[in-house]
Structure formats: C-alpha cells, structure tokens
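Recap slide: Inner-membrane translocator, sequence and predicted structure.
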Amino acid sequence: MKKPKLSQQSIVLALFALLFAGLLLFLPGFAQIDNLLTLVQNVAFLGILGLGMAIVVIGRGIDISMIAALAVPSGLLLQLVQDGHSLPSACALALGLTLLFGLVNGWLIAYAEVPSLFTTLACGLFLAGLGQASLLHLEVVQWPAALDPLAWLGRGTLAGLPMPVVMFAVAAAACSFFLRRLRAGAFIQAIGDNPFAARATGLPTRPMVLLEYMLAALIGLFAGVVMAASINSMPTRIFNSTMIYDVVLVVVLGGIGLSGGRGGVFNVLIGTLLIGTMLNGMTIMDLSYSVQNIIKGVLLLVAILIDSMLNPRNEETAQQGDI
C-alpha cells in the first residue's frame, strides 16, 4: 500500500489547525469575537505583503524594502492631500514614487547585477530616510477627510468580513491569476527555476526582474493604503519594526522555496494563517517583545533549514547574488 506523501503545505496546515484549536481551548480571550476580528485584520496586512514577497522569491530574489514601500508612498499620499493637493494628483505622485522605487530596485538587480538582498536593504533605508527627512512632516500622518472616497478600502465590512480581509482576498486572486494565467507569471517561475535555461530559450529575464520588483512595490503601496484607511493614519516608523521578518517567515514557512521557481498564492495563505495566529497568541499571552523575537527568530531558522532540505539549491543553476 502506497504511503501518502506529506508536503510542506499539509504540515503547515496541520500545525495551524493544532495551534488554532489549542489557543481556542486553552487561552482565555483568544475566542472572543473582537480578538478574532483583530487577528484576521492584522493577518490581512501581513498576507498582502506576503503576496508581493512571494512573486519576488519565486523569481529567485528577495525584497527587504517592502515595509518602506508600504510606509513612505502611502504616507506621502496622506501628506499631499493634507497639504491641499487634489486627490488625483496626490495619487499620481504616490504611484509615481512607488513605480520609480520598484524600477530602481529592479534595475540594480537585473542590469547592475547587485545581489537582491543588499539592493533592497539599501534602497529601503534610502526611501525610509527620504520620507522622514524630506517628504513627511510627522512620523504619524493622519488620514485627511479629503481622502474619505478611498476609506472603504480599509473600513467597514463586506458580507461580515472586515474590508482589509476582503482586500487581501482580492489581491490574492489577482496574484494567483498573474502567476497561473499570464505569460509573465509563467516567465517568472521559469526564471526562478533555472535562469540560465530561461535566458537560453530567449525569455526576457532582465525585464521580468524589473517587473517583479515593481509589482512588489505596488503591492506594498496597496497594503499601506489599506492599513492607513483601517487605522486612520500611517505610522511611518513601522519601517523600524520587525514586520519584514514576519513577511519572510510567511513566505518561507508557507512553502515557497528560497531557491526560486516553486510555490504560489496558496502557500502565502497558509503561511499567513499560521504566523498571524501565532503572533496573536503571543500578544494575548503578554510575551515581551524580546521573547517574541526569539521565538520568531528560531522559527525562521527552522523554516529556512527545512526549505534547504526540501528545496536544495541546484549547483548547476546557482549564481552570484542568489539568496
């Protein structure tokens, strides 16, 4: 009799079910409706960012600058509207900054061949510094009333679901369509699986890398606008948090191989559920920030170790700059 093969996805799903059931039964306050709504809302922001990170990791890269792309362009949008700019012009400037940021990231990686880890780390620091020094007046930019036509992105409910969760579902559907149905999505998976073969067969590898990082930046902006609408402000100091590690954890633990070419939106969904539930449980247990970081650090190391065993790097296709 053939034994059923356990995949990383099924293991993570089982871990999520066990963790959720355990917290539901034994952790006072976890099962309260308000807490569950907070959980799914926080999970939504993490999940949206995870989608952008997934596209880049599938293409054999990594984007450490996603929190800067979340905080600064969306903060600039709020700031410009506060300063009296019209909504269309403010949206156009924020969108332009985001596209330029993604373009610079992608160009440095694709054409200057700087490793993605160092490129996105440096560009993220630059954008965060530029925002705090020149673009934004305050570290917390309040949501202006003139932006209320966009407030539905993060406020209210649809069929009982908070709008951030609905936006996560919309973004997940769009990313799934991109990766599974569009030629560009197939190109990115092929390039992540074997960049030399992809180049030899004539795929536009360098433009595809540009596209990956521009999409990641756009998804970061989308997550920022949804977050700002939800909490009525954009706390730009979020760049200094450890949120980017949570995003990496979602992607790696969900089963998207760091060696590229493997995984999809479903991996992001199950990784988001597990990490979101774990973070919520640790918050209710009132674990200190340091202890939470220790637990997340150990979990990330274990996830990377498992990924290296399940998805070993192909020495024939490995190249300088791979993560």
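The first helix runs from residue 8 to 26.
The chain is about 70% helix and 5% strand.
(End of recap.)
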